[in-house]
């Protein structure tokens, strides 16, 4: 059965603009929580001089990835930053020096086994670059004796409007994507590779098809350009026909799903040994004259990104990520994180007034998870735990489709997140 | 740096609103109102406009008296008024129409919490209230005069469903050259409006198809004239504009199908076996009452769960 989806405008003005490096910012602010999971502890202190690529944060926890300095400079202080999960974490402020030098620790990893691959990926500081920020090595660390993974799916759907950073990865680093795939498939013993790209990016589909041609076991899939195509569960369903059960992960159905930029990063890392210190972001929005794809050091403050963008007027609303799932920020010091794929800016924003639900059912027909968002809103307002459980609110991935289509402009997806939190808090106590 | 607005995602919204939906419904009703005016004379238009005005005034007054936020700008009261007006015979007394509007807006809609909260379709319920209260006036049919003689000759006539021997031709039925309520006689205009709503994505075509389809099937199986049954009474009006009301119909597509088939069955039962010649209003009202039940048992299956887990 086909899952529900919605049609979104693309606004992909930045698609054919080649990536360029941003001017070195005067300082970077690097959060110790660049990923889902356990935050890192700083391994350097205020006053220390650091080199590009040097480890500055690490953790003994499994659910974590080390953090490297993205610049050469001096640690001048610490600050606190809220991450995408709403928690406050420590961050290091590093003031840059004009003479940027690479750390001596950087060397290409030696990979000869599954374990060596996973260790190298962990050391690289790799997290999901598509926006979720899940540590990559955790995804790779499934137990092969219990779980048989037969398909590596490279997620290049990029279904949110404006964002073109994954598209640029295919166009500029397509070879790295294939190299990364071959490496992962070889050492994780995955027989089949799949690259999923939305049909509205024919150039990327053509390019990757040509690159994948020598490899019989890698297929490029052209996916319908419908939102949320890039959601893991939807992607796995549309490429393999398999359904990931509630509370399960793609490996439960034999699939390993990685974002294309993550795979390209891994492909590059094994050659150069340069850890995750830079990433490609799209800068666009209604006030941006020339949309751009920028390669920025992790930790670059939003203000520097704005300065690099040619904007007409000062924004009154800006967010990191796409317009459907991105997070608004109010502080120009808010830094680019490892998982930030875009920065979008607007002015003269309309503020919507919520009106009564008219039971039109648009949210029901929009929900790819088969939920009834309007009922979840009612159940949450009533604080009805049993009802919320019966409505399977935990399945909501905050894709925002319900709020998008709502004619009464209700913030349904926001309510869903509150409902998830409420349910979690009230079930864990017992 | 100017001040930045913080808001939950998503940061873009579809270009739609309750008012735009209602405006589209009004646009879709225009051809039928125009046809009714052409067929029965200017008084029909006056009656429809007055009904819309009464509904808006009642909703406005109710909101003022109960100190609620003003909701008349969403145009839903206008839609209710126009629909009610279209459900009245052309010669219907204005003060009675005002009573109908009061029943629709105040009793059926606002007493239950306003837009989206009412369990019964306001226009349909008001039509039934008027039918039961002023039965004589509700069945005083006017002969369509542009096709007949002159306005002075406008006399009462029986509804085709009530007296089969005076049945007009299929073409007359389709174009509206017959006695009936202002907005229900011209099938061509109703289909035009219905098609508009389907194309604009306002209504799900399944509802009218299943409703009319069920009546057609019942008529065929019981040996009635199928085309005549489809075009008679308020079936097309009800199927496209009343059985598709958001608040009073199921929220899922399967639920909508069950609702529409139920409407078709009850309409057929009343028409073929009941004491009333017409059953569309009653069928929609009865199915309105069943909507919470349908919505409770007909739900989409959440992704990756088994069907039986999904029920509540």
Would you spell out the secondary-structure blueprint of this structure?
The complex is a heterodimer of chains A (430) and B (312).
Chain A: E1 20-21, E2 27-31, E3 41-42, E4 49-50, E5 55-58, E6 67-68, E7 73-82, E8 88-96, H1 114-123, H2 136-140, E9 151-156, H3 165-187, E10 192-198, H4 202-212, E11 218-223, H5 232-240, E12 255-259, H6 260-272, E13 278-284, E14 288-290, E15 292-297, H7 302-308, E16 310-311, E17 317-320, E18 327-328, E19 342-346, H8 362-366, H9 373-381, H10 385-390, H11 401-405, H12 412-428
Parallel strand pairs in A: 1-15, 9-10, 9-12, 10-11, 13-19
Antiparallel strand pairs in A: 2-8, 3-5, 4-7, 5-6, 7-8, 13-15, 14-16, 17-18, 17-19
Helix pairs in contact in A: 3-4, 3-6, 9-12
Chain B: H1 18-40, H2 42-65, H3 76-86, H4 94-109, H5 122-133, H6 135-138, E1 141-142, E2 156-157, H7 170-175, H8 187-199, H9 206-221, H10 226-231, H11 235-242, H12 253-273, H13 280-297, H14 307-310
Antiparallel strand pairs in B: 1-2
Helix pairs in contact in B: 1-2, 1-3, 1-8, 2-3, 2-4, 3-4, 3-5, 4-5, 5-13, 8-11, 9-11, 9-12, 12-13
